[in-house]
Each structure stands twice: as C-alpha cells, then as structure tokens.
Design brief:
253 residues; alpha+beta; D-amino Acid Aminotransferase, Chain A, domain 1; seven-stranded antiparallel beta sheet; 6 helices; 32% strand; globular; binds uridine-5'-diphosphate
C-alpha cells in the first residue's frame, strides 16, 4: 500500500494528504492533553468517539446551511475534509460561565450569561493561546473586519444549532471552541467551520444532575473520559443502545 503524506501532527489529530485535490484526511488519535499539554494520557476509544461526534455535529451544520469542512467519514478514526486556510484564532462561545472566564472575572461556574459571549484567542501554543481583542486581530492582520463579521455570525449559528441539538438530549452547552478556515471558490473566498466539534472542545453538562460529560472529566480527574463521551454519543444516537464495556466503545459502522 502506498504511504500517505503526513501534512501535520497535532496533539489530538493527524492530517494526511487527501485522495482528491483540495481534500485532507483527518485522523483522530486517542491522545488526550490539557493545560497546554502539561497533562497527557492515551484514552482508549476517545479518537473513535470524537470522529463520530464531530461527523454528527458537522453533518447537521452542513444540513442547516452552516458551511463546514466535513465531507465524509472514511472509517472509525478518519474523515475526509476540505483543505482550508485556518484563521489563527480560537473562537470561544459561552452561554454559562466556566473555566478561564470564571477564573478571570470571578464569576461562579454555571452562572447563566445575559447573552452568548464570543471571545477570541490567538492560536499559539508557545504563548498558551492568549485572549486577544478585535483591535489586536485587525491591527496584526490575523483576520479582516469582514472576516470578523462572518466569524461572529458563524459562531452564533453554531451555538444555536448545537445548543438546540444538545438540549434535545438533556445536555447543557456551557461553552465551546471552534476554528474557522478560508476556502477559495474561483474569485470568491468564504469561511467555513473547521477542525472538530466534540466533547474535547465543548463543555457539556447533564441538565438534571450537572454531571460533566466533556474534557473537564480528564482535566479535573472526575472519572473515565471515554465513558463520559460514550454517554454523549449514546444520547445522540451515534452509539448503539447497549452500553459497551467501560472505555471500549463498540461502534456500528
Ligand atoms: N477550548 C478548546 N481548546 C483550547 C481552549 C479551550 O477546545 O485550546 C474549549 C474548552 O474545552 C471549553 C471552551 O473552549 O469548552 C472554553 O475554554 P476556557 O477558555 O474556559 O479554557 P480552559 O478553562 O479549558 O482552559
């Protein structure tokens, strides 16, 4: 079998050259990191779950007219995506205070925000992804004012879609992070949702019990991460109804 060309290896994913021009294969690893990779572990089955969950959310977004990079799932750990130029920003949308916002502003975790709040961080691990303002973004040319309008609109549409879908299965979308990429269509360019949408990049709390079903389970040592992600997948109908043994999700193809 011909060896594929690896384009990039990140903390949780590997990108390979795709089969068609303009495509990339995105491989989901089991590697799990937190606190800028100071805490690391391999969690059996996590990559398989995130591949399925990201497929589920991105397919839904495509269907309701929010453009994403997702083309199709290839196998248990890989999906075919559109090649795009990633804007060097992490776009965070918050519905309830948690994590760094709670620490920074002294707001108790779980406090409902008066409206969704969008924040931008510069994608730079060596700096710990610092929070930046639109002034920084414009002045340093990381994105144009037109891009920022489009990014805000995409972020809020993703928030509405995800909040609704998750509400339907008893899960509160506390906050999430997306990345956005630029694709060229002849003379036109447009922005699409890229990277992944999974419990690695969202805060998901059970609506009744407040139980955490996201990466905070790993960050804060609250239990088995694969079990938490399996629960999200099971509720969304991405997993078969019968619970698999802990940490080893059985998936229907
Ligand atoms: N997030 C992410 N990648 C990052 C930073 C944050 O996916 O590099 C997600 C995180 O999982 C959470 C949201 O963005 O759902 C807000 O994260 P926060 O700023 O509170 O940072 P944290 O407390 O996770 O350091």
């Amino acid at each position: 079998m011909a060896r594929r060309k690896k384009i990039y290896e990140g903390k949780a994913k590997i990108l390979y050259e795709g089969t068609e021009p303009g495509t990339i294969v995105q491989y989901f690893k089991d590697d799990t990191t937190a606190f800028n990779a100071e805490k690391k572990e391999v969690i059996d089955g996590k990559g398989v779950l995130n591949n399925r969950l990201s497929e589920y959310f991105m397919t839904g977004l495509n269907t309701v007219g929010v453009p994403t990079h997702f083309i199709k799932r290839l196998n248990m750990r890989e999906q075919l995506i559109k090649n795009c130029e990633i804007i060097p920003l992490e776009i965070i949308v918050r519905n309830f205070a948690a994590g760094s916002m709670s620490k920074r502003l002294g707001i108790e975790e779980g406090t409902q925000l008066p409206r969704p709040i969008v924040e931008y961080c510069l994608k730079d691990d060596s700096l710990g992804d610092p929070l930046v303002s639109e002034e920084h973004i414009a002045a340093f040319g990381w994105a144009s004012p037109q891009d920022m309008d489009d990014i805000l609109s995409l972020a809020l549409r993703v928030n509405d879609f995800l909040s609704g879908v998750l509400y339907g299965v008893g899960i509160r979308l506390v906050d999430f992070k997306i990345e956005v990429g630029r694709v060229y269509d002849g003379d036109f360019q447009r922005l699409i949702v890229a990277d992944e949408i999974s419990p690695d990049s969202c805060r998901l709390w059970d609506m009744e019990t407040g139980e955490k079903l996201d990466k905070d389970v790993f960050r804060r040592d609250l239990g088995n991460l694969a079990d938490a992600y399996s629960e999200v997948a099971r509720r969304l109908g991405v997993l078969p109804k019968i619970s698999p043994p802990a940490g080893r999700p059985t998936l229907i193809n």
